Amino acid sequence: MFRLHELVDRLGGEVHGDGNVSVARVATLEKAGQGDLAFLANRKYLSQVADCAASALIVGPDAREQLAGRALIVTPDPYLYFARVAQLFNPQPAPRPGVHRLAAVDCEVPSGVEIGPGACVEEGVELSEDVVIGANCFVGRGTRIGRGTRLYPNVSVYHDCVIGERCILHSGVVVGADGFGFARERAGAWVKIPQTGRVIIGDDVEIGANTTIDRGALDDTVIGDGVKLDNLIQIAHNVRVGEHTIMAGCAGVAGSAQIGARCMIGGQAGISGHLSIADDVVVSAWTLVAKSIKQPGVYTGNLPLQSHGDWVKNFSHLRHLDALAKRVRQLEQHHQDGPEDRNPG
C-alpha cells in the first residue's frame, strides 16, 4: 500500500488534494472502489468520474480543475503513469534460487538462479544472477542469458544464442530454430542449407507465447533492446529488429528484412524478405509490406485474395489512379464546355 505522496516521490507527477490517501491497487474508472487508484487517459470518459468510487485518480493537467476536490495525481501522460504504478503494485515474483531435483543441468549455476523441474540446461551455458529457467525449458549448449531474465515454462532456446538482461520469454517461445533455408535441385528435391548463425536478443525484450525467432543462416538474427513481440509471431533468419519496436500478434517477418527502431507493426501484418523499414514507421494490421519503406509514417494496404496475375495487373492500375482521375476530369470538363465552346468559329 502506498500513499499518493509516496508514489509521486518515486514516479514524479503532482499531488492535488490529500496526499496521504492510501491506495493498494490500480483499477478502471468503472470497477474501482475504496483503496483503488484509477486513471483518466481520455477526456471522453470524464463523465464516468462522477460515479467512480476510486480513492484517487491519475489525470492529465487539462482535467485538474474539473476534478477539484478529489485526490489526484496530475501527470502529462496518465496512461504511462498508470503502467508504472501497476508495475510498482505488481512486481515480478522474485527468483527462488536453486536447481530442482528433476532438472538436468550441465553448467555452472550462480547462487541466485532458479531452475525448475524438467528443465534441461546443457554444457557451456552461461547464466547470470537472478535468471529464472521455468519448468520443462530447454537451453542449448553455449547459450548466454543475462541478469534478471525469466523463461516461463516450456521455452526452448537452441545452442549458442545470446539473450540480454531483464528479458521475459513466455511459454512456448522458440529461439534459435533453423531458418527456412533450402536450395532446389533440377528434379525438384530440396537441399538443406545449414543455419550456422545465432539469435542475439538485447536487454529488456519481451517475447509472447509461441513466438519463434529463427537463427541466422550465416550472420545472426538480431532483436534490439526494448523490443516487444506479441504471441504467435514469426521472425525469420537474419532479420534485424531495431530497438523499442513493437509487433502485435500473428505478424510475420520474412528472411533478411531490416526493421528500424521505434516501429509499430500491427497484428497479422506481413513483411517480405530482403527489404528495409525506416525508424518510426507504423504498419497497420493486415498490411502486406512488399517493398522497402524509407520514410517514417503510417502505412496501410489490404486487397482481397485473387490470382497473382490479376493482382499484378490490378496493382499496376492502382499505381496510375491519380493520372487516370486527372484524365477523367479533363474529359468531363471537355464534355461540359459543349461543342459551341470547343468550336467558337
Summary keywords:
345 residues; alpha/beta; Udp-n-acetylmuramoylalanyl-d-glutamate--2,6- Diaminopimelate Ligase, Chain: A, domain 1; UDP N-Acetylglucosamine Acyltransferase, domain 1; 3 domains; eleven-stranded parallel β-sheet; flat
Structural commentary:
The structure is a single chain. With 345 residues, the chain is an alpha/beta fold. It folds into three domains: 2-89, Udp-n-acetylmuramoylalanyl-d-glutamate--2,6- Diaminopimelate Ligase, Chain: A, domain 1 (3-Layer(aba) Sandwich), CATH 3.40.1390; 98-299, UDP N-Acetylglucosamine Acyltransferase, domain 1 (3 Solenoid); 315-342. It contains five helices and 38 strands. The chain has an eleven-stranded parallel β-sheet with strand order 8-10-13-16-19-24-27-30-33-36-38, with no helix packed on it. A hairpin with a 5-residue loop joins strand 21 and strand 22 (190-192). The radius of gyration is 27 Å and the shape is flat. The mean pLDDT is 94.
